């Protein structure tokens, strides 16, 4: 393959490049493995049938058309083996065809991906719309030295453009140059910050991406913590219980073990898949500080290198399962512009995990580095209280009123919220504890829900809407009057936060006594129905009066 420049200027805007020549093998290995498996199974069955003479009797050659008579006299393993070989050749030709007619172009302003010959498709992404550039390395492409470069674009429900596959070194250089061209340079916050759980030597483990010259290792999850966290999950305990039950039943009822396995195998596969997926996104997890933000590297079989630019995190959710409470561990999910989707999307859900197993020190580091907060320690302390605390005299959270116990007797003391200079922090959950952290300037909209029981108890739930993602922040069981006041104040806080970022002024420097004076009246604040004026008419025309409508040309009443 010819040498490929990283970025092309206007003078080379018509240059297109193909993917790596090994891409067909990396993309079509599953289909090839299926074909080989079918061929191997057929060959073995045919050879056994020829030896034992128990081959199934097919139609007699005399009953077949002459064109098929030749094939009917062939041994089954030869016939099916030949068909499998032809299928493999067709699949190989199709993969080469797709590779040959798949090209990409990268300039200083956009990236394009063109596929197909008869039905041609071209996808284009503007670089100024790119929110993140991720590198993924599934098992076989990683063995071949290849990598996939994914362009995540704002407001996209899925990856806008994915280059499958490039040489790993070329993909890393291309990502580095593109991030520089996009201009996502961010100041380094928390210089010299490190985690007590980082490796002493600061080196990545075998099989992971080594730290580059512009990267600084700031966090490395210990392997024993990762394994212990996966063992202390409900899914793993249920998996062990099901496996133990199958073993015991096999000894007690050996004659019906096959029927039992038919029912247990799907459950075992589902639970095993959940455990493996959680292990996949936490194995070898490392966080690096880069000029663009933080870079995450993780993966057991599929290696992923993900860049989270500073300021692109829209909302966070900290979850603490019941079996992790004794150790103080949490998992952090985020909404990031460009990823879209929710947990129902496997790819988006995996990449929405910012920290798979974090302690309190890791949370402080995350708030400083990923969000760029100068008061990251203060926000981390409030988040830790949101996960561990509940309503009491020493709480820094505003809690639900006592009458909320009629609808949430167990969880009522866990509901609450607090507000800092930059964030809204809300907590919920008793057994499975949750804490939501949303920046003021990232809230897209606010809604208030009041069902019939909530109206009877004068309560309200406030939802803080962010971009599409797994985090759904809310403040539950608030007093109605407090909820109305919170919405007005939060809207003003959001306006002021956006003004501070953009440099614009909306005429409100603080919340003071004039909270809400710059906002339109909310539905519950209206004293009367709004009135609307009649539309203006062009010059020389006037609205008809009642008398002119009711009287005819001669002035008589119509």
From TrEMBL:
The chain crosses the membrane at residues 28-48, 77-100, 227-251, 257-279. Residues 185-206 are annotated as: Disordered. Pfam families: bPH_2. Residues 99-176, 285-341, 413-482 form the YdbS-like PH domain. Keywords: Membrane, Transmembrane, Transmembrane helix. PANTHER family: UPF0699 TRANSMEMBRANE PROTEIN YDBS, UPF0699 TRANSMEMBRANE PROTEIN YDBT. This is PH domain-containing protein.
């Amino acid at each position: 393959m010819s040498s490929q420049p990283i970025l092309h200027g206007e003078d080379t805007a018509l240059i297109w490049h193909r993917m790596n020549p090994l891409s067909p093998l990396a993309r079509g290995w599953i289909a090839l493995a299926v074909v080989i498996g079918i061929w191997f199974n057929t060959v073995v069955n045919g050879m056994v049938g020829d030896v034992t003479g128990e081959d199934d009797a097919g139609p007699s050659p005399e009953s077949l058309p002459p064109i098929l008579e030749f094939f009917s006299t062939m041994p089954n393993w030869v016939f099916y083996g030949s068909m499998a070989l032809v299928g493999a050749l067709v699949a190989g030709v199709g993969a080469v065809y797709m590779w040959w007619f798949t090209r990409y172009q990268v300039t200083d302003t956009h990236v394009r991906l063109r596929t197909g010959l008869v039905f041609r498709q071209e996808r284009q992404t503007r670089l100024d719309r790119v929110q993140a550039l991720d590198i993924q390395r599934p098992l076989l492409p990683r063995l071949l030295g290849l990598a996939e470069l994914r362009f995540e674009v704002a407001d996209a429900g899925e990856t806008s453009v994915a280059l499958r596959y490039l040489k790993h070194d070329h993909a890393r250089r291309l990502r580095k140059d593109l991030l520089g061209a996009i201009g996502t340079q961010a100041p380094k916050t928390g210089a010299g910050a490190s985690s007590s759980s980082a490796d002493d030597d600061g080196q990545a483990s075998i099989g992971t991406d080594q730290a580059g010259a512009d990267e600084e290792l700031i966090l490395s999850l210990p392997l024993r913590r990762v394994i212990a966290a996966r063992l202390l999950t409900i899914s793993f305990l249920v998996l062990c219980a099901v496996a133990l039950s199958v073993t015991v039943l096999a000894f007690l009822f050996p004659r019906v073990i096959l029927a039992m396995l038919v029912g247990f195998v799907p459950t075992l596969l589902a639970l095993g898949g959940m455990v493996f997926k959680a292990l996949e996104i936490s194995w070898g997890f490392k966080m690096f500080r880069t000029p663009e933000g933080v870079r995450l590297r993780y993966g057991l079989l599929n290696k992923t290198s993900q860049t989270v630019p500073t300021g692109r995190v829209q909302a966070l959710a900290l979850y603490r399962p019941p079996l992790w409470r004794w150790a103080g561990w949490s998992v952090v999910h985020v909404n990031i512009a460009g990823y879209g989707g929710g947990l129902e999307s496997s790819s988006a859900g995996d990449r929405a995990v910012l920290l798979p197993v974090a302690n309190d020190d890791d949370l402080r580091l995350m708030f400083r580095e990923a969000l760029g907060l100068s008061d990251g320690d203060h926000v981390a302390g409030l988040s830790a209280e949101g996960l561990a605390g509940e309503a009491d005299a020493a709480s820094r959270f505003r809690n639900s009123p006592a009458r909320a116990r009629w609808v949430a007797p167990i969880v009522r003391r866990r509901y609450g919220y607090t507000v800092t200079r930059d964030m809204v922090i809300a907590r919920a959950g008793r057994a499975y504890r949750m804490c939501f952290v949303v920046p003021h300037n990232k809230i897209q909209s606010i809604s208030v829900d009041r069902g019939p029981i909530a109206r009877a108890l004068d309560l309200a739930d406030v939802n803080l809407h962010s971009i599409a993602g797994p985090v759904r922040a809310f403040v539950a069981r608030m007093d109605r009057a407090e909820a109305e006041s919170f919405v007005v104040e939060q809207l003003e806080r959001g306006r002021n936060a956006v003004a501070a970022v953009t440099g614009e002024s909306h005429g409100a420097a603080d919340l003071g006594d004039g909270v809400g004076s710059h906002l339109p009246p909310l539905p519950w604040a209206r004293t009367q129905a709004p009135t609307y004026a009649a539309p203006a008419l062009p010059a020389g025309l006037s609205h008809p009066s009642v008398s002119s409508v009711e009287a005819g040309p001669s002035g008589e009443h119509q």
